[in-house]
């Protein structure tokens, strides 16, 4: 009886004892957690988050021409990679082949070419040469087999004449793209690899050859050819050789002309291709 009185007295002093419910995870003595599977599982033989420090490999190399991520596929310069992984490229009956450790395959003819540099999807090297591909999610390193490269944040602008698109890259990563208007049939836009050599902010009036008109925020890269803002942005080639971009703001964001002017630096590489 004394024990019952003591318990009742304790309840009056300290209040009621909280109930432990299976529906109350904070008070439950044992709460089970289900960790969902990662929806972005990597393909076989592609490892994410690996760095040279983790694998204790040789110090990383640097690319002469940085890889590019295009439509979700990482493209690497084939000759530069072949030299590092001990592969050979040779010509046989008008076809190019890549060979490493008695494995060889015909190099596809429809690969991306920029100047004299040919790019190959890194997934082909994985599948056909049985190589492991390692990279980190911040695009700082790339490993192919036992060779590692340190990736830079170099800026590049690629202009696709066929699709009338302009792409901006920082290292392999695509950071911006927009519609562009290139030269018409009488004033074709020159293809090749160039660098921005002059920038003029705001409205710029041009007189003389090849035309007289207004540019906004021009980025000059070859003679009088420039990437510049314009009020005339049809869906087809219509310029006098320049690459037009819109000066129209969308949702209070900088216009393509403003964004490119702020982002592009003197010396930034511009690559103009018939088809990207």
- What's the CATH first level of the largest domain? Mainly Beta
> If strands are numbered along the chain, what order do they take across the biggest sheet?
1-10-11-12-2
Distance between the termini: 91 Å
Biggest sheet: strands, sense, closure?
A: 5 strands, mixed
Percent of sequence in beta strands: 35-45%
Estimated radius of gyration? 29 Å
Q: Which structural class is indicated by helix and strand composition?
A: alpha+beta
Q: Within the CATH hierarchy, at the fold level, what is the topology of the largest domain?
A: L,D-transpeptidase catalytic domain-like
Percent of residues in helices comes to 10-25%
Uncertain runs are: 1-46
Tally the beta strands. 22
CATH H-level superfamily title of the largest domain: L,D-transpeptidase catalytic domain-like
Helix and strand string, N-terminal first?
A: HEHEEEHEEEEEHEEEEEEEEEEEEHE
- Mean pLDDT, all residues: 81
Tally the helices: what do you get? 5
Based on Cα principal axes, name the global outline: elongated
Q: Tell me which CATH architecture of the largest domain applies here.
A: Beta Barrel
């Amino acid at each position: 009886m004394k024990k019952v009185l003591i318990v009742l007295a304790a309840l009056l002093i300290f209040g009621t004892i909280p109930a432990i419910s299976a529906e109350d995870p904070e008070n439950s003595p044992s709460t089970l957690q289900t960790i969902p599977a990662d929806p972005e599982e990597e393909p076989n033989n592609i490892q994410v988050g690996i760095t040279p420090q983790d694998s204790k490999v040789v110090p990383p190399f640097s690319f002469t021409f940085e890889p590019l991520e295009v439509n979700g596929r990482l493209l690497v310069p084939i000759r530069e990679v072949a030299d590092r992984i001990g592969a050979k490229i040779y010509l046989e009956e008008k076809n190019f082949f890549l060979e490493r450790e008695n494995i060889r395959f015909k190099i596809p003819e429809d690969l991306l070419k920029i100047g004299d540099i040919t790019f190959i999807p890194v997934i082909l090297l994985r599948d056909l040469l049985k190589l492991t591909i390692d990279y980190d999610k911040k695009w700082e390193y790339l490993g192919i087999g036992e060779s590692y490269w340190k990736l830079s944040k170099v800026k590049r602008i690629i202009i696709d004449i066929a699709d009338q698109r302009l792409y901006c890259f920082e290292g392999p990563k695509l950071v911006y793209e927009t519609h562009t208007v290139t030269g018409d049939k009488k004033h074709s836009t020159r293809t090749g690899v160039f660098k921005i050599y002059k920038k003029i902010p705001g409205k710029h009036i041009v007189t003389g050859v090849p035309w007289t008109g207004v540019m906004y925020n021009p980025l000059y890269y070859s003679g009088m050819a420039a990437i510049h803002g314009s009020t005339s942005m049809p869906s087809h080639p219509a310029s006098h050789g320049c690459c037009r971009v819109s000066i129209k703001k969308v949702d209070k964001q900088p216009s393509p002309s403003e964004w490119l002017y702020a982002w592009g630096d003197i010396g930034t590489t511009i690559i103009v291709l018939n088809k990207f």
